[in-house]
Design brief:
By secondary structure, the protein is an alpha/beta fold. The chain contains ten helices and six strands. The protein has two domains: about 130 residues, Response regulator (Rossmann fold), CATH 3.40.50; about 70 residues, Arc Repressor Mutant, subunit A (Orthogonal Bundle), CATH 1.10.10.10. Strands 2-1-3-4-5-6 form a six-stranded parallel beta sheet, with helices on both faces. The longest helix has 15 residues.
């Protein structure tokens, strides 16, 4: 990986799970350090020193969704929710709080690691078990507003964002420079009136541009 090594925060109240995930992440060449926390208070206290967080929802001192909200808005840390909860309302609440991903703990270890990396890179990733509950599957014949203002090229770019592609992967698929992708994404966000690529991806999926079966890291 060409990007600088990242510090990952793992928040889970079960020491075995937390340390196991920390050990797996520590083997990745894009991870420089793993910080562990067992509560919302500990996780929020470590937030300023990390680049991406992996958060369980069943925490002893507060709602894990609240920790997602805190991490996303101060200091703006990308968050992957890793939990056993499949409830549709919980999935939607996490996404509304700013989570960039939601996968279940029984996912394959390599899928979890890919999900962490995708969220770190600004992508959106939803595990197949929860994506169908969270977002609609049908693609409309005509794109609804504000997607109807996009050019075919922008629709293709937004589709790749909604499928969880990172900038390097988008650049490869479109055959353009990564800088071009960054510029086009910035322009796309302005047209859609959203703050970041995760919000753009969620908007595209909510409007039916792409189905949840395509949500992957």
């Amino acid at each position: 990986m060409s990007s600088p090594a990242a510090t990952v925060l793992v928040v889970d109240d079960h020491p075995v799970v937390r340390r196991g995930l920390a050990a797996m992440l520590g083997l990745e060449d894009w991870v420089s350090r793993v910080v562990e926390a067992g509560s919302v208070r500990e996780g929020a206290g470590a937030a300023e020193r990390v680049d991406v967080a992996v958060v369980d929802l069943g925490l002893p001192d507060d709602d894990g969704v609240e920790l997602v909200r805190r991490l996303r808005h101060n200091p703006g840390c990308p968050v992957l929710v890793l939990t056993m909860t499949r409830d549709e309302g919980v999935v939607r609440a996490c996404l509304a709080a700013g989570a960039g991903g939601y996968v279940l703990k029984d996912s394959p270890p390599d899928a979890v690691i890919r999900a962490v990396r995708t969220v770190l890179d600004g992508g959106l990733v939803l595990g197949p078990e929860v994506a169908g509950a969270a977002l609609p599957t049908a693609r409309p014949a005509r794109l609804p507003a504000p997607l109807d203002r996009l050019s075919p090229a922008d629709v293709r770019l937004l589709t790749l964002l909604a499928e969880g592609r990172t900038n390097p992967r988008i650049a490869t698929e479109l055959g353009v420079a990564e800088k071009t992708v960054r510029n086009r994404v910035s322009s796309l966000l302005g047209v859609l009136g959203v703050e970041d690529r995760v919000q753009a991806a969620l908007l595209a999926r909510e409007k039916g541009l792409t189905g949840p079966d395509r949500a992957s890291g």
